[in-house]
Amino acid sequence: MGSPSATGGGGGGNNKTYSSSREIGLMNQYKKPKQRIIDTQRDKDEAFREQGAYTTRRRIDKLPALLPGAALVKSASPYLQKNSKRTRDFFVNRVLTDKRGLKNFGVNQKQFKSLSVEKQNEIYGKYISERQAGGTDGFGTKIASGDGGGNQVVQAPDATTMPVEQLPEEVKVAEMTAEEARAKANSILKKKRGTKTNKSLIATSPQGVTDDKGLTLGKKSLLG
Residue 178, Cα to own-chain centre: how many angstroms? Predict the structure, then answer.
């Protein structure tokens, strides 16, 4: 197996990951020590950055072509993949270089990069899940909340923490419902053609688009 940059996605048969730390180690094991360290770090960085895009691409590619609206959802795939990479870049380059990132996740950027790809995805998965649920801000700081009786208060973000509604595009979760994906796809097509997109293209069933393994694009699905 070649490097992730050469193959555009690895996994060695493991369809849940873009490329594992073990695979990266095997790819670089016969190189000279100094070069092995450099290449291994490069491949790990790329594997983490590409994981969300790889997962997104696989999920959308599995949609049957004959499903209503499937073509439009597929046309939104490049946008979703790009957004996933931007979100992961924000996490590594902004969150983990900020003192709040170290406090909230226990690692800084350098320490994070030294971890296995699997551990990196575990930490990032926790970040994005809590972010998606609205429990934390863009830097992983818990947002003020109570226990219902007013007896417990979780730390509120300070004045320098970006509020939810003002988060930049790169920190938003790369996930869409079928309707949103269609709307985005229509917007892309409209810009390309320079004409109005036929409204009939975004018609969909109340259930949204599903594949044969239970993937429902009518419900929110984490694609980051």
Answer: 17
CA distances, 28 to each of 38, 62, 91 (Å): 10, 32, 27
One-letter amino acid at 25 equals G
Rounded CA separation 22/118 (Å): 10
Q: Is the pTM of this model over 0.85?
A: no
Over residues 187-221, the pLDDT tens digits come to: 666 665 654 444 444 344 333 343 334 344 444 44
Tell me the C-alpha distance between 90 and 95, whole Å. Answer: 7
Sign of the CA dihedral 166, 169, 175, 179? Answer: positive
74 contacts 61 by C-beta, under 8 angstroms: yes
Please report, for the chain, the start and end positions of each structural domain, with discontinuous segments joined by +. 83-174
Q: Give phi and psi for 103, each to the nearest 5.
A: -65, -40
- Answer yes or no: are the C-beta atoms of 173 and 90 closer than 8 Å: no
Asked if 10 and 48 touch (Cβ cutoff 8 Å), the reply is no
